[in-house]
Every structure is written in structure tokens, then in C-alpha cells.
Amino acid sequence: METYSQHHLPLILLHLIFIPIIFTACGASPLSTFRAYVADPDAVADDVHRSIENSTAHAAMRRRYLGEKNKSCLTGNPIDDCWRCDPHWEKNRKRLADCAIGFGKLARGGVDGEIYVVTTSEDSDDYRNPEPGTLRYAAMSKKPLWIIFARNMKFRLKRHILLESFKTIDGRGHHIEFDGGKCIASRFATNIIIHGLVIHNCEQRIMDGDGIQIFRGTHIWIDHNTLWNCSDGLIDVTFGSTPITISNNHLTRHNKVMLLGHNDNFRLDKKMQVTIAFNHFGEGLIQRMPRCRNGYFHVVNNDYTRWGLYAIGGSAAPTINCRGNRFTAPDYRFHKEATKRPFVKMSEWKHWNWRSVGDEFLNGAFFTPSGSQTYLGHYEKAWSTNAKPASWVASITADAGVLKCDKNSHC
Ligand SMILES: *[C@@H]1O[C@H](CO)[C@@H](O)[C@H](O)[C@H]1NC(C)=O
Ligand SMILES: *[C@@H]1O[C@H](CO)[C@@H](O)[C@H](O)[C@H]1NC(C)=O
Ligand SMILES: *[C@@H]1O[C@H](CO)[C@@H](O)[C@H](O)[C@H]1NC(C)=O
To answer: Which of 14-23, 85-94, 245-254, 283-292 has the lowest mean pLDDT?
Structure first.
């Protein structure tokens, strides 16, 4: 969903009429956004750089001394290196909750609850009273839950799985696929972790056809999923959702990939803070990787493979802090620019802070920075990520998307 149009009439109604009612009725006032918002986003970005620096240094050292054998835990990817070296990951699943970096770092998911095993891919017709054993039952529980699966499962749903607060969906160890129908959404929820799902061909019926939709969420982490070809966005984060980390995902074959903020005039999105790290924006993507509005976006060590129109777009004066990404432009000579400020005059966007540090540009790709030339996050003066950042992108993103994890061995 992006702009208001006839096509989106139901959404207009939702915005104008229902949102204030929902805010009031659920007690979900914009306050939760203000509480979750981080006052010093540059400090969070700096913390991410430090953890990458630390992990790549360890990885380089261990490669030198131990050889390349243990590849899955020698990547220099600080999220993966936090848990993937453990051959008993299956017994220590909740360890994952300590491994996020960036704005979504504090997302607890269901770490304080029980492990819940989904035993069937059937969905309940009565979606308000789902059967125990279904994913819907677990997702709607009022208790914190760490949700795992008994076997490989394929879902084709008539309604979104609506995740309530304090849930982890952990697909590790099985092939968990959402193929067609409706997919995953979370509205007015907090502390969500989504890890290890294959999501594709999600369909639009009345409202939205996103792969993963986060609407007014706080403390969200979306890690190691594989997504392609949905009828709306692959990952959409809107309505004052913050703080968020979107990491290690593999995205392909899609037009409008990732929307962060739905409307220029939605002021609460000024508080949106998102870390986009170690994702592989792969083959067949056209635009919005991501498309940002209003907030602060830290885009670090992602691999961009030949977009169709552009990679990173923004409007409504977002801050874009780009570090150590690899941008490979498409061959078409008029689409080499990685950045895009659609429908905005230069006199306006020249003040927006868009900066690129340590990015690598291939096949003629380029980034158009803006904002004060002298603007650098205040921490950067004391701390510089001088170490060959983009050169690590290939190994850091090599396992983007769903991982193949077997019990009793490295994942
Ligand atoms: C640095 O990396 C090592 C190995 O990956 C890890 O054990 C340690 O906790 C990290 N330290 C920090 C401060 O991130
Ligand atoms: C991986 O490395 C660890 C030490 O970091 C070692 O204990 C383990 O045996 C290695 N596993 C394999 C499969 O090489
Ligand atoms: C993409 O997904 C839509 C449903 O959203 C489906 O109708 C279409 O066939 C899919 N396209 C491909 C190429 O798989």
C-alpha cells in the first residue's frame, strides 16, 4: 500500500475512521512508538559497526588458524556467529533472541515463554477460535511463545496469520513455506521475531498482499527469511512501527520490495528507526530496497544484484545511513543510480541526510548523497569503520535467506 487511490478505498476508510478508534479502544496510543524510539540513532548504528568489526576480525583470525572448514560459523556475520557455531542449536533455540543487532536488538520474541510445537498446517475455519496445534492458535495466544514446527509444512491461508505480542516464529530445522493465499501480519504488537520462513505468491484480496506486514509494531526482528513474488510488498513496515531490524533475508522476483512508511504525511513515522543488514537483494527485483519515509534507516552490508529501476528510495526527508553495501547496477545505462527521490525537487532533497560510506559500486552504479557535507554522526569522529567493509559483503550475505539446519550439527 502506498498512496491513496480508488484502488485503495478500503484503506482510506481504515485510515480516516478506524485508526483513531483502534488507538483508543486498544489503549495502543502512539505513546508506545515514542517509548520504543531511540533518542540517539547514530549510537545504535555505531554499535552495529563495532559488532561487525569484532566478528570480521574474529573470522579472519580463525580462518587463518583453523582453515576454512567451519564455514557456517566463520562468516564475520555478527548475528550468525552468535549462534550458528553451536552444534546443539536445536537444544538452545532461544539463544537466537540474544543475537540481534541494530534497532531491533531488544526484540524478545517468545523467549520468556514456552516452546510451542505446531503439529498441523491445517487452518481453522473459525479464525477467532483456532484449534490447538495450528500456527494460528499459537500466533493468537496472549502468552509469550517460542513457536516451532513438528515437520516440514506448507501453508495456504485464507486469512493472515496475525501475530500477537511476544512471539517468535522459528522455522529452523524444517522447511516452512507460505505459498499463495495470505501470509504473515502483525498489528499493534510488540516483541516479534520472525526467522526461517519461505514466503511467496502472497495474494491481495481486500486489503493487502504483503509477505510480512508490520503495522504499528515495536521491537521487531525479521531474520533469515526467503521471500519472492507477492502481490503487494515483500516486507512492509508502517504506521509508526519502530525500532526494527531486517537482516539476512533473501529477496527475489518482485516489483515493490520493501516499504518503510506508507505516507509522507504520517508524522508518527518520523520515529521509525530501521536497521537493514546483511540482506541479499537478488535477481528480478525492480525497486524499493527499501522505499523509506520520514525516519532513520541504517543500511549496512547488503548485497544488491541488478535492480530494475533503483535500489534505495525515499521521500519526506528520511535519514539514510548507507555503509559497506555492494551495489551492482543493471546493464541499462539510465538505471545505474542506486538512489531515488521520486517526485521531489532537488531544492528540497538537498537538505536530507543521505550518506554512503564504504559502499562498493559495480557495473557503473552510483549513489547520490545529500545533506550537509560535514554531517557525520558524532560518534564517527571517534570511531571509524576503516576495514574493507564492502569486501566482506559476499561472505556475510552468502547464507542470506532460510538456512538448512540439521539437528546435532552446525546450522
Ligand atoms: C566479539 O566476537 C566474539 C566471537 O564472535 C564474541 O564471542 C564476542 O562476544 C564479541 N564481542 C562483542 C563485544 O561483540
Ligand atoms: C568447528 O570449530 C570448532 C571450534 O571453533 C570445533 O570445536 C568443531 O569441532 C569444528 N567443527 C567442524 C565440523 O569442523
Ligand atoms: C506470483 O504470485 C501471484 C499471486 O500473488 C500468482 O498469481 C502468480 O502466478 C505468481 N507469479 C509467478 C511467476 O509465480
So the answer is: 14-23
Q: pLDDT digits over 163-211, tens only?
A: 999 999 999 999 999 999 999 999 999 999 999 999 999 998 766 789 9
Residue 386 has pLDDT above 50, yes or no: no
CA atoms within 13 A on the CB side of 97: 23
Q: In terms of DSSP bridges, do strands 312-315 and 339-340 run parallel, antiparallel, or are they unpaired?
A: parallel
Instruction: Give me the chain's average pLDDT, please.
Output: 88
Section 283-298 average pLDDT = 96
**Residue 162: band (very low, low, confident or very high) from pLDDT cuts 50, 70, 90:** very high
Nearest atom of ligand 2 to the alpha carbon of 69: 14
On whether the CB atoms of residues 35 and 240 are closer than 8 A, the answer is no
- CB of 58 sitting under 6 A from ligand 1: yes
| Ligand 2 center–CA 384 separation, angstroms | 32
Are the C-beta atoms of 310 and 339 separated by less than 8 Å? Answer: yes
Q: Tell me how far apart the alpha carbons of residues 268 and 34 are, in angstroms, rounded to a whole number.
A: 9
Domain segments of the chain as ranges: 30-396
Catalytic site includes residue 288: yes
Residue 71 C-alpha to ligand 2 middle, in angstroms? Answer: 10
- For the domain 30-396, what is the CATH superfamily, name and number? Single-stranded right-handed beta-helix, Pectin lyase-like (2.160.20.10)
